[in-house]
Each structure stands twice: as structure tokens, then as C-alpha cells.
Amino acid sequence: MAGNVGNPMIRMASSAKKGEVVEVRSLIMNPMTTGLTKDKAGKVIPAHFIQTVTITYNDKPLLDIDWSTAVSANPYLAFKLRAESSGTLKMVWKDNTGGNWSADSKLTVA
Question: Helix, strand, or coil here: 29?
């Protein structure tokens, strides 16, 4: 599974009119294991899950999310953003094993 971890993606419009609502969709590959399950050989599968998601727009905080093992594998996150000014949306995912991934997307407001 280690080869499939990471690969963060953000999907959103690249341009919008001022005041328009833009949907932001994101996905990151992560097994989101609890540490309570066993593999076929009976060995415990170690916990491996996203703990925090930090989202900024033009380096200003937008969302801080705390996740736990109760989130499904390969978590998908969607939210809406009102386009007021052009800028860059940045998302950072951190997991319990020290993994750290980021992705960004630009939005041009006319």
C-alpha cells in the first residue's frame, strides 16, 4: 500500500466571476487504517491515517480539519468557496506516520 499513498488532487474552476460560488473537490490516497484490523496472516495492520487537513487561500487560513480513523480510505473532501479575489488555494494533508503532502490550485476572478 505504501506505493499508493499520497498523490493529492484538487479540482476546481480556474476562473470565476466576482461573487460566484466555486466548488472545490479534493482527494488523497491513504489507507486510513485504524490499527485494529489484521491481514490474512493474522498480523495487525498498523494505524495509518490522515490527521489534519489545512486549507489556505492566498496564505490566509480558510479551513483546519482534524480527522481520525473514522474516515474512509482515500478520503474525498468537497466544499464551496465564494470567489472574491484572484489567488491560490493550498491544501496540506498530514498523517500519523509523519507523511506530509500538499497541492494547490489557482483561481482567477474577473
Answer: strand
| Residue recorded with cell 500538499 | 102
Cα separation, 34 vs 75, whole angstroms:
14
For the chain, residues with pLDDT lower than 70 are 1-3
Cell of 78: 468537497
Q: What is the pTM of this model?
A: 0.90
Nearest-angstrom CA–CA distance, 108 and 57:
12
Give me the residues paired with residue 53 across strands: 65, 93
The string of pLDDT tens digits covering residues 12-38 is 999 999 999 999 999 999 999 999 999
What is the side-by-side order of every strand in the sheet holding 15-16?
A: 15-16, 100-109, 87-95, 50-57, 60-66
Q: What pLDDT score does 1 carry? A: 45
Q: Partners of 60 in the beta sheet? A: 57
